[in-house]
Specification:
Largest sheet: 3 strands, antiparallel
Shape: elongated
Helix content: 25-40%
Number of helices: 4
Structural class: alpha+beta
Distance between the termini: 75 Å
Strand content: 25-35%
Order of helices and strands: HEHEEEEEHEEEHEE
Low-confidence stretches: 90-104
Length: 236
């Protein structure tokens, strides 16, 4: 009799645990997400069409320690190989956007801007590019190359500019910043969007401006971010 009572008691306990777990599952399934906490760019304006004031991203200028990819094209294939060699043979590795989990790929060595703002190119020698935009730098390099090449064309881009996304996103990582007008929304999209737990009204943006760290708090729930100066990312 004692054994039978023990078995009955055990069955009752297991049944109680089962009911308890079922209740938890049912309660969890009843929880609804408040879309007001996850919907981007909310506005009090109910118009179907709305025009936001234009904002222009700040043009990035070349600084010491930048690494530049300088692509030279001319009528001489041999000269093209000579000038483009640092762009094709790399020893640095970095994370590139678009791959699984960020992915890794080789980064070309490029041309390093030294502490005085100069680069060193084959035949041409030292060229000062400090504080130039990429377009101004390309024009300056082209003028130097006219002494050695016929009808050269030059394009320049940054190789070492990057940004890092951490926290409640699906793919936290460091990504290459390959353009001046990359927005914070595009950056979050590259990181797989914020998770359901991310606080979209309290996103922290850290910037280095003239050697001074700046911390900005951003509310992505408000449409005001679309015409805010922090909408565009910068290197670092």
């Amino acid at each position: 009799q004692i054994g039978s009572m023990f078995k009955i008691s055990r069955k009752v306990n297991l049944l109680g645990v089962g009911i308890y777990l079922l209740a938890i599952i049912l309660c969890a399934s009843c929880v609804r997400v408040d879309t007001r906490n996850i919907t981007y760019f909310q506005s009090r304006d109910t118009l179907a069409y709305q025009v936001m004031p234009p904002i222009t991203p700040q043009v990035t200028r070349i600084q010491p320690d930048d690494i530049l990819a300088i692509n030279v094209s001319s009528l001489s294939e041999e000269s093209n190989v000579l000038f483009n060699y640092p762009n094709l043979n790399g020893i640095l590795t970095t994370r590139f956007p678009g791959g699984m989990g960020g992915g890794t790929a080789e980064q070309p060595l490029g041309f390093l801007v030294d502490s005085s703002g100069h680069i060193e190119m084959p035949l041409v020698g030292r060229i000062k590019l400090n504080d130039y935009t990429l377009e101004q730098a390309a024009d300056s390099v082209k003028r130097k190359l006219l002494m050695y090449l016929k009808e050269p064309t030059v394009s320049i881009r940054f190789l070492n500019h990057k940004f890092t996304i951490l926290g409640e996103v699906n793919k936290p990582s460091t990504y290459n910043l390959l353009e001046n007008n990359l927005t914070i929304i595009e950056a979050i999209g590259m990181a797989g969007d914020m998770t359901i737990y991310g606080k979209r009204d309290n996103v922290m943006l850290v910037r280095n401006v003239d050697g001074i760290k700046q911390i900005l708090r951003i509310n992505l729930l408000s449409s005001n971010i679309l015409n805010d100066s922090s909408f565009y990312l910068k290197n670092g």
